[in-house]
Amino acid sequence: MTRHYNFCAGPAALPTAVLERAREEMLDYQGRGLSVMEMSHRSDEYVAIAEKAEADLRELLNVPSNYRILFTQGGATQQFAAVPWNLLGPGGTANFIETGIWGKKAIQEARHLFGAAHVAASSAESGHVAVPRQQDIALSSDAAYLHFTPNETIGGLAFDYLPHTQREDGIEVPLVADLSSSILSAPLDVSRYGVIYAGAQKNIGPAGLVVVIVREDLLDRARDDMPTLFSYRQLAEAGSMINTPATYSWYLAGLVFDWLKNDVGGLDAMDAINQRKSDKLYAAIDGSALYSNPIAPINRSRMNVPFVLADSRLDSDFLVEAEQAGLLNLKGHRSVGGMRASIYNAVPEAAVDALVAFMNDFEQRRG
Ligand SMILES: *Cc1c(COP(=O)(O)O)cnc(C)c1O
């Protein structure tokens, strides 16, 4: 059996050690005689799995005690609706910083549901090659919160700072972050955020699960007229078990958290590895005449590295030969074309080394 290097943007690579452990425990979980997939979510065994996952995530991200962690479903896309439903009081407007496709989708959903969304800043004019600076962010006078996308997965554009959220009247509104593609890639100061959410399929585990971290005082803002399953307050009260949660995805996420803590050595160690990986790949791109990446250096994503070939007629050969070399899923998003290498936590440094060697070799032969 060979596991190739997988650069997929999502669902993405999982750590081999995690998959091996899941395989060992697949048919008979720790001598209980059944698979985790077959357990009641109310059983003592499963509740212990769920609680350990939460405790490990809390420890990894140093989540303060006045924040609740929810394990919910519906993808990050469902949170585009859940966030305004939970945080928009009467009269308030959702505010956004738009830096690419995912942020735009969040804006569209808030507009669709509530009739209004204020774009406080956007990098659209620059073609999303640099994020707006703090002085360019103009909150509306009735802003209820400010939503942003710290790492735009498709464009490969990342914030290099945390936006301040003070309105003109001095009120500081909650900062909301869609961290789907960069959570757990480096330490995070959770206390600076009101809500963090992340679809699991990039840096947490299998698709189907979404992790939400919400400051406790915001739970009271939830509207009464929203669907029960969207309500942060009700999810928190029920320990994320209003209905059957995504039990197996939650278990696998727990294995990933355990791997990050005990195999990798925590988020400082992960951060250093991710820095090395992305430095190597951008250096290869910048040092070549064939490959290029348009993003301002301080806003380059360390997780998603898009690049184009100087001659797009070489694209299909590049992809075919990469696949033959065991380098999978390098095709760029259908909306932008070119290539994209997603180098999430579970993509080892050796994968980046192999990719760089392939890119150099391809350029020498075909560039
Ligand atoms: C992948 C992604 C999404 C969409 O996630 P789904 O789980 O497919 O809804 C949203 N935002 C960001 C930043 C993403 O990377």
TrEMBL record:
Positions contributing to pyridoxal 5'-phosphate binding: 76-77, 102, 153, 178, 201, 243-244
Q: Which GO terms describe its cellular component?
A: cytoplasm
List GO BP terms, alphabetically. L-serine biosynthetic process; pyridoxine biosynthetic process
Key words of the record: Amino-acid biosynthesis, Aminotransferase, Cytoplasm, Pyridoxal phosphate, Pyridoxine biosynthesis, Serine biosynthesis, Transferase
Which Pfam families does the entry mention? Aminotran_5 (PF00266)
List each coiled-coil range. none
The Aminotransferase class V domain covers which part of the protein? 5-355
Answer yes or no on keyword Transferase. yes
Q: Which InterPro entries match?
A: Aminotrans_V_dom, Pser_aminoTfrase, PyrdxlP-dep_Trfase, PyrdxlP-dep_Trfase_major, PyrdxlP-dep_Trfase_small
- This protein's superkingdom? Bacteria
Note on how the cofactor is bound: Binds 1 pyridoxal phosphate per subunit.
Q: Indicate yes or no for the key word Transferase.
A: yes
> What's the main place this protein lives?
cytoplasm
The cofactors required by this protein are: pyridoxal 5'-phosphate
Query: Under which pathway is this protein filed?
Result: Amino-acid biosynthesis; L-serine biosynthesis; L-serine from 3-phospho-D-glycerate: step 2/3; Cofactor biosynthesis; pyridoxine 5'-phosphate biosynthesis; pyridoxine 5'-phosphate from D-erythrose 4-phosphate: step 3/5
**Where does the UniProt annotation locate this protein?**
Cytoplasm
Single annotated GO MF: O-phospho-L-serine:2-oxoglutarate aminotransferase activity
Q: What does this protein do?
A: Catalyzes the reversible conversion of 3-phosphohydroxypyruvate to phosphoserine and of 3-hydroxy-2-oxo-4-phosphonooxybutanoate to phosphohydroxythreonine.
Q: Which family does it belong to?
A: Belongs to the class-V pyridoxal-phosphate-dependent aminotransferase family. SerC subfamily.
Q: How does it assemble?
A: Homodimer.
UniProt cross-references to PANTHER family, sorted A to Z: PHOSPHOSERINE AMINOTRANSFERASE (PTHR43247)
Q: What is this protein called?
A: Phosphoserine aminotransferase
Species annotation? Halomonas huangheensis
